Amino acid sequence: MAHLIELSGIKKSYQLGKTEVVALRGVDLSIDVGEFTVVTGPSGSGKTTLLNIIGCLDRASSGTYVLDGIDVSNRDFDDLAEVRNQKIGFIFQNFNLIPVLDVAENIEFPCAVRTGGEDAKVLRARVEKLAEAVGLREYLHHKPDELSGGQRQRVAIARALITTPRLVLADEPTANLDSKTSDQIIDLMLELNQNQGVTFLFSTHDPRVVKHARRALQILDGQMVDGALAH
Amino acid sequence: MSSRLPGLALRNVGRNSRRSLITGTTIVFGVSMVLLVRGFTVGMSEMMTDDVVQGRSGAIQVHRAGYIENIDSVPTRLNLPYDDALRLKMVAVPHVKGVTGRITFNGLVSNGSQQTMFIGRGLDLAHEGEACPKARTLVSKGEPLEVSDDAAMVLLGVELGESFHVAPGQMVTLQSTSPGGRANALDLKLKGLTTSSFPFENKRVVTLPLAAAQQLVGLDGRVTEYVLSVDDLAFLDQTAEALRVMLGPEYEVHTWRELQPFVRDLISRQDFVLGAIAFVLLIIVLTGIINTMLMSVFERVREIGTLLAIGVRRAQVLQMFLIEAAVIGALGGLGGALLGRLMVFGFAVNGIAIKLSGVSGSNVLRPFVSPAFTIGAVLVALLGAVGAALWPALRASRLNPVEALRS
After folding, report:
1. Residues B87, B78, B50, B248: is their CA dihedral positive or negative?
2. DSSP code of A214?
3. Region of residue B253 (phi > 0: left; psi between -120 and 50: alpha; otherwise: beta)
4. How high is the pLDDT of residue B379?
5. Helix axis angle, B314-350 relative to B301-309, nearest 10°?
6. Of A136, A145, B93, B161, which cross-links A131 as Cys (Cβ 3.0–4.6 Å)?
């Protein structure tokens, strides 16, 4: 069976002034459907760069990246935008909700921006179902600034799932949450992983997230130190 | 574009309401000022046109071919028959409202002890009102000439009369020559003094009944020009052309624009000044919009990164910012149009008594702005706002999502 993510010899370097910084030095990595994986490593190790490439937000300088059977290594920006919209859900450290939209509108936004999107009523029903799943059924018409940090991250999770993506990428999803809320968020994502088979890939420094991961990847100086550390 | 993004763009307009309000107010100010300036310029142009057309030259004049080319020598030899047949033929041309005949000539005027050159205008008082109804208002002292007057009456330009120390009721002598060179003189009673903002007219023009002028220059039954009024100046050129066709090559037909290049040029200069003012206002307004949109982009870099991350295309981001600018531009433009028209209406209701160079007597300026110009101003505000937002919007759409999310 093909892997959901397949990275081969991924290298990434960029210019910082006159200096060339090498962020990834040849990463080989495979992730299967349904995995709950964390990427750890110190600051500057290259984990965010790796997630950006996996999330099709950035392109590798060399190497190949196959996502869900599609070679996305050399796709242009608009192609990658479509891939992101169709196949990837994003959860950000700072939640990154759109402040002028309410909870329901934030959740449905990735579907609503599609050209010729689905019927509004059907979409709204799915939004309500997801809001129910993340415990925000009563907050559908609240604006983000009326929610707590944990509630905002729940909205972000629901937004990441509304497109029924093949992969959810979470960049330090608990970094701005207190420990109790972090546990709730991790439990929620674990539940979604187990019950709905959603594939999660995290970058994190949080040991509680690492503790719950079924697979932990460590990156150091742009290279995978241990590609398959299973708990 | 999906239905959500325009909605998001609309909400973003109200996001920083104070800034949007300031920008919108700038546009309201700019558009309303443009309309007000336009209103005054159009009002002024119409006032001057009205003064010329209804008080001086009429809308159209007909001369013998070659007259205008030799106008500096006041060529009475290039005269026309003055009869009802030709006059009624002209009246029958569509849009021609009234026709009268005049003789323009030159000569010497004397009060017994002084004499000077003058330009004479012999008017057919029975028909002058049909072609130049406001001509009577030019008289500032004494009385205007009337049809019932004795033919031996005359009006002098106010400065000419004052320099001669003559008052209504006193006699002056006019001397002139016929086209054949025969000298003639007439004693006429001064009935009044005419005032014009054209200094030349105050110093040199003498007005008298047509019969007296014909007698003085030996042109019985003839005139040097026909003066015509039209029912609608929008048809001026069309009417002039119809007259040319009807009269043939022996005659020449000129509109007031050709006969009064000074006024025409004054109106053109006013239009130029309006254009310059409008341009400066447009630059001020557009600078405000650029500033607003740039601020908006800088404040929302991470949000734009989020939009790009979740699959919004660059073109959609561009459109979103342009819609924001268009909404501000349209609302500001409509507000400005409303305010501008209200101001124009306010000034137009009572009118403004004004006296400018080239404009005679007591003229009332009534600002006016056409619906077409108003719509144009709103469209310029809208399109200008979109144009001004293009650069900030392009900046937003070209953001690198990775860097934008990191900000």
Report:
1. positive
2. S
3. beta
4. 93
5. 130
6. A136
Percent of chain A with pLDDT over 70: 95
**B88 neighbors B94 (Cβ within 8 angstroms):** no
Mean pLDDT of B58-64: 93
If one counts every other C-beta atom within 10 angstroms of the C-beta of residue B259, the result is 21
Q: Is A159 on the interface with B (CB under 8 A)?
A: yes
B60 falls in which pLDDT band (50, 70, 90)? very high
Q: Which of B228, B219, B203, B187 is closest to B96 using CA atoms?
A: B228
Contact A200, A181 (CB under 8 A): no
Q: Sort out which chain A residues have CB atoms less than 8 A from B302's CB and list them.
A: 94, 96
- Give B173's strand partners: B110, B187
Paired residues of A70 in beta bridges: A67
Pick from A89-93, A185-189, A201-205, B35-39: least confident: A185-189
Residue from A98, A114, A74 nearest B312 by CA: A114
Residue for token digits 């569509």?
B94
Does residue A47 contact residue A39 with C-beta atoms inside 8 Å? Answer: yes
If phi > 0 it is left, if psi is from -120 to 50 it is alpha, else beta; for residue B361 that is: left
Contacts of A152 in chain B (CB under 8 A): none
- Give the per-residue pLDDT at B355: 63
Per-residue DSSP letter, A213: -
Is 3.40.50.300 the CATH number for A5-230? yes
Question: Residue holding tokens 């200096």?
Answer: A19
Structure tokens at B160: 């000419």
User: Percent of chain A scored above 90 by pLDDT?
Assistant: 47
Q: Mean per-residue pLDDT for B114-131?
A: 91
For B359-401, the pLDDT digits (tens) are 445 578 889 999 999 999 999 989 988 988 888 889 889 988 8
As given in the structure block, the two tokens for residue B265 are: 């040029």
Query: Any residues with CB less than 8 A from the CB of B58 and at least 6 apart, and which?
Result: B100, B131, B132, B227, B228, B229, B256
What the block records as the tokens of B156 is: 């002098």
pTM value is 0.74
pLDDT at B267 (0 to 100): 84
Pick the closest to residue A99 from A91, A112, A109, A89 (CA basis): A109
CB burial of residue B277 (10 Å; 0-12, 13-18, 19+): middle
Distance CA B24, CA B199 (A): 47
Task: Map out the domains of chain B as residue ranges.
Answer: 4-52+264-406, 57-259
From the candidates A113, A114, A159, which should be mutated to test the interface with B, based on the most B CB atoms within 10 A? A113
Identify the DSSP state of B178.
-
Q: How confident is the model at residue A199 (pLDDT cuts 50, 70, 90)?
A: very high
- CB nearest B402 (choices: A57, A84, A96): A57
- Cα separation, B99 vs B92, whole angstroms: 10
- pLDDT at residue A117, as a whole number: 66
- Enumerate the residues of chain A whose CB falls inside 8 A of the CB of residue B309: 55, 57, 84, 90, 96
Contact across the interface for A81 and B302, Cβ inside 8 Å? no
Residue B283 contacts residue B386 (beta carbons within 8 Å): no
Q: Do B11 and A113 touch (CB under 8 A)?
A: no
Residue found by looking up tokens 């086209």 in the block? B179
Distance from the Cα of B2 to chain A's closest Cα (Å) equals: 5
